[in-house]
Design goal:
alpha+beta; three-stranded mixed sheet
Length: about 250
């Protein structure tokens, strides 16, 4: 079995804003593309264009219709990937030591050369964040694009996970939770960032920002002022045209 580090120097992870995510799946596509082309064995697909396609994804987006106690129902898009838990059960259950948590940054990874595809880590993960690649025969999971964030051959702006870099709505944020002044730490504090299923005691590093309550002002039709009449009585050219049309038999009065 693999032991977890007592502490990590950094706590790299994601903040996902559920109020901003539009469910476009751009993060899913970019994650699949980057990891298939660069990190480890490709993320395979089986019968991709057939009647029962399946494949391996490190990031997925689920959508749920939520009915608040007050107000109208809303659609919530919920991205899900590995949460890089501090007390990661997927690591401690691994019989070969293939799953491990890095002491330098807290990222949970899988050494594919040691993975035997037994599936114990997927069984132990309460978030369903691990998938067995049917072609490679090993477990796959989000790596926080470890091959991007430390790649000095990339411009600084690209040294972040592919899902964060590509999100068109700015719903995904990457940073160090060990730094109280980092962008992710500030967002978590300001917006009440939440752990996913905290009662399980896994201490996930990734946080979710809850949807903001709807402001009553948002229910007002913003186009209403432009649709209302701008004048009760016609003036200028419009007045002349109205008078001319009224003179025509059958015209307006």
């Amino acid at each position: 079995m693999t032991e977890l580090p007592q502490t990590t120097t950094r706590k790299l992870g994601l903040v996902i804003d559920l109020d901003t995510c539009v469910g476009c799946h751009a993060c899913v596509v970019s994650c699949k593309g980057w990891n298939t082309e660069n990190y480890g064995a490709p993320l395979s697909d089986q019968d991709a264009y057939g009647e029962a396609p399946s494949g391996t994804f490190l990031n997925r987006v689920h959508s749920y219709e939520v009915q608040p106690a007050e107000g109208t129902a809303k659609l919530i898009h919920f991205p899900k990937s590995c949460l890089h838990c501090e007390d990661a059960p997927c690591v401690t259950v691994c019989p070969t030591g293939a799953s491990y948590k890095r002491t330098e940054d807290g990222i949970v990874l899988v050494n594919e050369q040691d993975c035997i595809g037994c599936g114990l880590c997927a069984w132990a993960c309460p978030y369903g964040a691990r998938e067995l690649d049917a072609a490679a025969g090993v477990m796959k999971k989000c790596t926080l694009c470890v091959d991007r964030i430390y790649n000095e051959n990339l411009p600084q702006i690209d040294r972040e996970p592919a899902c964060v870099r590509t999100c068109p709505a700015g719903a995904r944020h990457f940073g160090d939770f060990a730094d109280p002044d980092s962008n992710v730490s500030r967002l978590t504090a300001e917006r009440g960032g939440m752990d996913l299923m905290p009662e399980l005691g896994t201490k996930p590093v990734n946080k979710y920002l809850p949807p903001r309550p709807r402001d009553a002002a948002q229910d007002i039709d913003i186009l209403a002022p432009y649709l209302a009449p701008v004048a009760e009585e016609p003036k200028g050219f419009v007045a002349w045209l109205d008078k001319a049309l009224s003179a025509i038999p059958g015209g307006s009065n």
